């Protein structure tokens, strides 16, 4: 390496840190899931670009090296994908709190720990809540999973069972942070 080249930061100077929105030390409130209808913005952009490509092809035709049938195929593909994006951009009407209430009434036991995850269901990509629930017992005796439509609030599927995890070997006084 020559003298005028910068070697860059040393390994001691490189610091790995979490992005601000993932730093729990600066947590200021509950997380709000973004609405699924944000998909409509890029969908509209795809449609505009696709129609622009098609318009350019039909205006100029195959007489140019830059404008040819490939541009028309690409434009049609973008426009069709944009239409799908508009259709799949459902508005999320049910939030995670409402989905948790629906899940707890569906499984038939008092819910202790629970986890909500937003997923998409079917070809039309409907927003769906996947709620994993455990009973309020310590240790939990039952567990269940409930899929709830994020647009209508209807239960799509659900399953509940006795918790098959073996808790007998665990000492309740131990935590994950203690070492043997």
Descriptive report:
The chain is α+β, with helices and mostly antiparallel strands and 180 residues long. α1 runs antiparallel to α2. A hairpin with a 6-residue loop joins β2 and β3. Strands 1-2-3-4 form a four-stranded antiparallel β-sheet, covered by helices on one side. Among the domains are: 53 residues, no CATH class; 67 residues, Nuclear Transport Factor 2, Chain: A. Helix content is 29%, strand content 21%. The model has no long low-confidence stretch (mean pLDDT 83).
Q: Which architecture of the domain at 96-162 would the CATH scheme give at its second level?
A: Roll
What structural class do you assign from the helix and strand content?
alpha+beta
CATH uppermost class of the domain at 96-162:
Alpha Beta
Indicate the overall shape: flat
Q: H/E series, N to C?
A: HHHEEEE
Share in β-strands? 15-25%
The helix fraction, in percent, is: 25-40%
Rg calculated over all Cα atoms? 26 Å
The CATH topology of the domain at 96-162 turns out to be Nuclear Transport Factor 2, Chain: A
Largest sheet: 4 strands, antiparallel
Low-confidence stretches: none
